Amino acid sequence: MIKHRLAWVCRGLAYGVPPLAVLFLYSVPARAQSLDSIYQKAKVEGSVVLYAGGPTAPWEAAAKDFSARYPGVNVSITGGFSNVLDAKIDTQLKAGKLEVDLAVFQTLQDFVRWKQDGKLLNYKPQGFDKIDRSFADANGAYTGVQINAHVYAYNPNLVKPEDVPRSALDFLQPRFKGKVVSCYPADDDATLYAFYSIVQKYGWKYMDRYMANEPRFIQGHLGVVRSIASGESLVTFDTIASISMDQKNLGLTQAIAFSEADPLPIWPYTAAIFKAAPHPNAAKLFLAWYLSPEEQAKTGNWSPRSDVPAPYDWKPVLSYKVVNNYREFLTNTVQLDELRKRFEVYTGPVKNTGGVR
To answer: Residue 204: left (phi > 0), alpha (psi -120 to 50), or beta?
Structure first.
């Protein structure tokens, strides 16, 4: 490689190109040139269609930055619940009329299934080697783009510092009766994962005691955050750290805490490009751009990349004592179905909608 670059430099000098310009041109990494090539193809396609599970506002901000960086490539975003958007994609795939290019969901089992069915495009963007294998498919069929964690959240105006929960047992205290909130575990797989981690440690009797404290259930983690901020609820062990912090930065009353006793449930917010994507190059470009260290540092969340520092005053995510078996949890379909049914006996069917926008 060094001999080739020296040859290029000599050739450039021979043709009268200024030395500094020659050195600049031939010091550009091959991967950057590859992305430029993808950009040229993406401009022809003109757009990328993204389906995003969860709040859409962060993706709308990212889309604006992306289109400013890569003029001529627009981003169309459809947001909502992952377990609704996945069914929409399945319908499109079955009809042979795929509209979406790139999906970013919490329902990791969908990507495992789509890979098995040969529906996903293997793609390893720059920096893929920095991503822990627990967060990505080895062949690049799907990859985490953010790492989420279920921390505790509370209303700091209404909960004294000495009363902030330190373990799951603290949510059983009488002072929080009727003031604990979470998503429905039978409806939200990430919430189910968090609840199950607690049951594994404390047993199913924990759920009997938890329900005796009259918790509130709502649909969507944004609804959980808003319930805490309004004072309708006081505490939860089922917030997504980045969502709580995003809303706090927007002015909502919110504080988070890490458990001193229980392991931290973590899981990758995962992305994949479809083989039949109408705009595959634009999708590649967006995913590579979003996974760059510069953009990852802006997400307000842990990056799957080991070379991107954690935000705020958080530690690197894998330095905590974590529960990190989300892929295995979601692909154990028999256990998953049994858990959904068992938790629904406790909570009843979905009634309160919280929204995701």
So the answer is: alpha
Mark 15-47 as b/e (b = at least 16 C-beta within 10 Å): eeeeeeebeeeeeeeeeeeebeebbeebeebeb
Q: What is the pLDDT of residue 352?
A: 66
* Cα 354 to Cα 184: distance, rounded to the nearest angstrom: 11
Helices (H), 300-332: 326-331
Average pLDDT of every residue of the chain: 90
Residue 150's DSSP bridge partners are 240
Q: What is the pLDDT of residues 70-79, one digit of tens each?
A: 999 999 999 9
Q: Which pLDDT belongs to residue 7?
A: 40
Task: Tokens for 54, please give them.
Answer: 């969860």
Express each pLDDT in 299-324 by its tens digit.
999 999 999 999 999 999 999 999 99
What are the Cα distances from residue 141, in Å, to 88, 106, 332? Answer: 20, 15, 20
Question: What three-state secondary structure class fits 45?
Answer: helix
The C-alpha angle 183, 191, 54, rounded to 5 degrees, equals 75
| pLDDT at site 236 | 98
Residue whose C-alpha is closest to residue 248's, from 266, 226, 271: 226
Distance in angstroms (rounded) separating the CA atoms of residues 236 and 223? 12
Amino acid 356: pLDDT: 55
Q: Which long-range contacts (CB under 8 A, 24 or more apart) does 214-217 make?
A: 214/177, 214/178, 215/171, 215/178, 215/180, 215/181, 215/182, 216/178, 216/179, 216/180, 216/181, 216/182, 216/352, 217/181, 217/182, 217/183, 217/184, 217/347, 217/350, 217/351, 217/352
DSSP state of 274: B
Rounded to two decimals, what is the model's pTM?
Answer: 0.85
Q: Are 271 and 328 in contact (CB under 8 A)?
A: no
Half-sphere exposure of 314 (CA within 13 A, CB side): 26
Residue 97, token pair as written in the block: 């009329």
Distance between CA atoms of residues 199 and 213, nearest Å: 16
pLDDT tens string 135-186: 999 999 999 999 999 999 999 999 999 999 999 999 999 999 999 999 999 9
H/E stretch holding 79: strand 74-80
Give the pLDDT band of residue 12 (cuts 50, 70, 90): very low
